[in-house]
Specification:
Bound molecules: 3-isopropylmalic acid, manganese (II) ion
Low-confidence stretches: none
Distance between the termini: 19 Å
Strand content: 15-25%
Shape: globular
Length: 365
Amino acid sequence: MGNYSIAVLAGDGIGPEVIEQAVRVLQNIGKRYGHTFNLQYAMVGVAAIEAEGNAISDATMQLCQRSDAILFGAVGGIPRFEGPNSKIQPERALFRLRKELALYANLRPIHPLKALLNASTIKPEALQGTDLLVVRELTGGLYFGKPSEIRETSQGLEAVDTLLYSEKEIERIVRTAFELARGRRKKVTSVDKANVLSTSRLWRRTADRIAQDYPDVSLEHLLVDTCAMQLIRQPSSFDVIVTENMFGDILTDEASMLAGSMGMLPSASLGTRETAHGLFGLYEPIHGSAPDIAGQNKANPIAAILSAAMMLRHSFNLKQEAQTIETAVEMVIEAGYRSVDLYEPGKETVHTKEMGRLIAEAITV
Ligand code: IPM
Ligand code: MN
């Protein structure tokens, strides 16, 4: 029976709605297994910009540093803060957390539930057997490279972003992928654009070198455009995909549709810091703030709930408890309940709070 401290950063858009349901589920896990989750709420994104002048304050960063894990909702997507001329972007909160907490490994598992094979826009027979994990590099590449700016020249404006990777950065993420593949089907697909980019050529060379330390795991290389195609053509051919930051961002939105909806996909962002309970990490749904449906009780809370399950597994070593949440989600879906994004004729459509309640109750039984 443990005592765990969690920084809860619900953020913008649908973030607060889905996090509320994840917290409800966590509370029932606490009751059932006798754990105490100490939740410390803090602001990020637009609320933090308005109240504290920054997308994430120093005090909130310190709170995160003291916690065993972070449960994160979403930031951004608010028109007032978007667009080419906005000075403070809510997304900065995420970038600061990722970079300063050195959360370089972003794990995005995609394992469509059997009962949802028909919910996807892809044919069920193509989805059969799909169970893949994308390991996205999260603290390098175009997201952080300098210079990154719009600047004036004598010929007019120009803009630059910088794609830079050190061998060390590539090595540690590729190792993470190989380690994870060992606990799965022992296949790593390294995704790059080595026919064009120098960073990709170093990436490929490094992946080949690391592979020698893992003779029990097979390694294939795939160009990112081919990978995008193969994810739709034969998703079951993948086990672990490892790739750089921007490719990983794009491919995981694509891959999320294999699971029926982005509203189903959780993620874990991990570094190397160990707490008393396990690996420190940040857990968030991949769907983002979805401002078009915010505040309407329409969002699918499952991605946030499954992110809480990943937190139990990776940061607290509570494997059985994590499994209990995952089973509860499956039971509720199999019983025929669907969130709005998963609408299916003949099934019962339920809203955010109702879906959260059903899953939380499936845990107490
Ligand atoms: C994600 C998101 C973020 C990213 C946005 C909100 C900056 O799309 O986590 O995938 O691009 O990393
Ligand atoms: Mn994204």
